[in-house]
Amino acid sequence: MKPWAWSCCVWTLLPLSAAFAAEGETPEKSDDAAAPREEVVEVRVTAQSGTSVYVDRGSDAKLAVGDRVVFLPTGAAPVEAVVRSTTKQSARVELAVDTPLELGTRGEAHVDADQARLEHPPWERPLGEGTADVPLLAPYETAAANSAPTKWHGRVTTSVDWTEDVENSGTFWLGRTGLTATAENPFGRSGAFELDLDLFARRADVGDSSDESESNLRIDRLSYEWGGTRYEDTHWQVGRFFSSEFPEFGVLDGGEFVKRLANGDRVGAHLGFLPEPTPDMDTGADVSAAVFYRFVRGANEEFSLGTGFQKTWHEGDADRDLFVAHLDWRPTKAWTLWSSAWVDVYGSNDVQKSGAELTQFFLNSSWRASPTTGLGVHASHFRFPELLRNEFDAVTASSILDAETTRIGVDGWKDLTKDFRLSARVDHFSDQEDDGFGASVRGTWRELFFDQSRFDAGVFHDQGVYSTVTGAHVGLSKTLELGQLSGTYEYAQHENDDFSGALGTLDQHSLRGSWQKGFGRDWSLSLFVDRRFGDELDAWALGFYLVRRF
Fold first, then answer.
1. What are the angstrom distances between the C-alpha of 337 and each of 248, 330, 333, 412?
2. What is the separation of C-alpha 217 from the centre of its chain, rounded to a whole number of angstroms?
3. What is the SS3 string spanning 113-162?
4. How many of the other CB atoms lie within 10 Å of CB of 117?
5. Per residue in 91-100, is it b (16+ CB within 10 Å) or e — as a string?
6. Which of 162, 336, 372, 409 is 20 to 30 Å from the Cα of 276, by its Cα?
């Protein structure tokens, strides 16, 4: 049997075996537990760096590590992604394929609807003895945490996408099984063990070209952490993980220490290897050392300003000197501001650049002027850093020296009636050679045709460096007892620069239908079919996404 066929079998058996194993440990649930747990949260792209994309919703909107996100770029196929880290107001997701997304691109995050339901057990034991300089509940809380039983929770996800490109005689298949798991207090020290891995396989049959197939197991996170609670002012984490304070420094194979000061500020450092940004995530060639400080104020850290410095070495040679500043500010319940700036400093060992350079800058701010009106602003700036590490694919020397992209835009929405919302977006981009703009307007009606339904209709225009896309889309979703059904249609006209004749203007269409349903509190299933046709386009896509929570 061929490797990709073995992978097909694994995709079928792994989630089911894990599910049935967990089934035997699941206590009997009441009828109230039969309600579906998954809901869809709309997100918007605020920044992108390679396959890492930042969105404008976070843990406050129930996004969690491992959640699936589907981006819906105008005039293009949907793009799959997985949440890798979250803050209260934002999240970082990883794309399944390296695809550029415009700022403001809409996406749908599939989250656990019950994730915010936290039940505190009753205090059944008397308080321990305390001293005058220790909070009253500290002795009891510390003892309870250390003696608490080990608890496992997480999810197993399985997805398969199949695409038939009739126009170019190609067939593509992608299968993924992911396991995200957390063990609380596994060693009786109030710590947590975290695991996040993906088993994937790809196969491509492209006309007369040679067929390609691969399968791989990728470990995105494998770590143990302890401390950092209300009663412990130090936090340690070892293994493979993203920094709890500065995920901008990348995945680390090593250790990190964070100390909370008396005023609430945090200071820390990390040391370890940086895995290569490839599916294999090979490690050992790049060493990272970093120090950072985070200034916080407010009972719920409404103001947070962090600064950090990272020094890297590639195969023993000094490589990157990177300063990062990160701002997260919520002045009021209605106004939020998030921003991140990356500054690379170049020295005598660098060939093409010298001095300091603003490599990346992201800003996203939203203001809810009233319960019926909202306004947002987003901006970004990107330049390629000069690195010895192979961070980006196929980047020329001229691109490292000259390439840059800057974007800025505004978006807003207004509820004109209790059932109708009008939203709009306008943005502008510029690079080293050209500039352009984009705009869209969309109306959303609740229960326009049916109860528990939503109807969307909108138009868009996006001018790029090499082409201009203008089009319209409509969508309808309806919630039934058998699940949620939705369908969309989109028309896009592509005006391609430097092309004449039939390739100068392309009229293309897409139809997409989906169904999703939760089965009890632990299972959910999504199915989709996508049909794309028109000038130079004829393709089908089918797929499913299965989740088992435990």
1. 18, 6, 11, 15
2. 20
3. CCCCCCCCCCCCCCCCCCCCCCCCCHHHHHHHHHHCCCEEEEEEEEEEEE
4. 8
5. bbbbbbeebe
6. 162
Tell me the C-alpha distance between 193 and 399, whole Å.
Answer: 42
Domain residues of the chain, as ranges? 233-430
**3-state secondary structure labels for all residues of 287-329:** EEEEEEEEEEECCCCCEEEEEEEEEEEECCEEEEEEEEEEEEE
Tokens of 497: 């620069």
User: Does pLDDT of 225 surpass 90?
Assistant: yes
pLDDT digits (tens, 9 = 90+) for 276-318: 988 788 999 999 999 999 999 988 889 999 999 999 999 999 9
| Cα–Cα dist 224/194, whole Å | 6
For residue 333 the two structure tokens come to 């319940």
3-state class of 66 per DSSP? coil
User: CA–CA separation, 461 vs 442, rounded Å?
Assistant: 12
Smallest Cα–Cα separation from 536: which of 513, 504, 503?
503
Q: CB atoms < 10 A from the CB of 458, how many? A: 21
Q: How confident is the model at residue 423 (pLDDT cuts 50, 70, 90)?
A: very high
- Model confidence over 139-174: pLDDT tens digits? 444 445 566 788 888 889 899 999 999 988 889 998
Global pTM?
A: 0.80
- Whether pLDDT at 388 is above 60: yes
Q: Which residue has the tokens 């060939």?
A: 351
Contact 106, 411 (CB under 8 A): no
- Tell me the pLDDT band of 466, cut-offs 50, 70 and 90: confident
Are 293 and 304 spatial neighbours (Cβ–Cβ below 8 Å)? Answer: no
Half-sphere exposure of 187 (CA within 13 A, CB side): 8
Q: 243: which DSSP letter?
A: -
- Among candidates 364, 306, 366, which has minimal Cα distance to 332? 366
Higher pLDDT, 297 or 502: 297
The Cα 101–Cα 45 span in angstroms is 8
Q: Residue 83 forms beta bridges with which residues?
A: 93
Q: Give the contacts of 95 (CB within 8 A, at least 6 positions apart).
A: 51, 52, 53, 71, 79, 80, 81, 101
